[in-house]
Amino acid sequence: MEVGIKHVLFDVDGTLVRDFNSDQLMPHVQKYFEQLECADYSFALATNQGGVGYRLWGESKGIDGRSLKKYPTVNQAYNRLMEIRGQISSITKNPIPIYVSYQYKDERGEFLLPCGVSEWDWNWRKPGTGMLTRALFNWGVSPQFVRMVGDSVSDELCAVGAGVNFSWASEFFHGYF
Question: How far is it, in rounded angstroms, from Cα 120 to Cα 97?
Fold first, then answer.
């Protein structure tokens, strides 16, 4: 990692694990954490988990429950994220905050259900900057000392909007494949 960057936020699905159904770190990700001198760094997870919002929206509209079962409940998403965080923490021995958005955006780009709590706030969902802004505040650092690693345009736009450095996951983990 370049000089000055001591805080790294990771997207989850497609960056640390294969997809929203997985809770196992990809091998190259595990290798990265095992080979890094982690004591000098702070890590956090910043992830959109819109399937939770979609499931709640569908349930509120009376959509057949069988078709919604592939989308996680809040508890299922939370447990999966805790498992992923636990795998990283067991290697790094560092506390790892999780910033998560459950907000779902429909095909027209409109946000559905509920608001008023950060996890459901429209600006909390990437590409909004809410999660990164909170991480910067909690770490007490300026954006130039932070890197966001992700696999989607919304991750990149979020980083740019918050003023933090951005790396595509494929480039960031390149030497660990």
Answer: 18
Task: Please tell me the number of Cα atoms within 13 Å of 111 on its side-chain side.
Answer: 17
Helical H segments across the chain, by residue range: 27-35, 50-60, 65-68, 74-92, 130-139, 153-162, 169-172
Domain hosting residue 159, numbered range: 7-176
Rounded average pLDDT per 10-residue block, the chain, 177 residues: 85 96 95 86 94 84 86 93 96 92 71 55 85 96 97 98 98 88
Distances in Å between the Cα of 14 and the Cα atoms of 6, 149, 155 are 23, 11, 11
Look at residues 106, 102, 91 and name the one whose alpha carbon lies nearest to residue 126. Answer: 102
Q: Is residue 2 part of a domain?
A: no
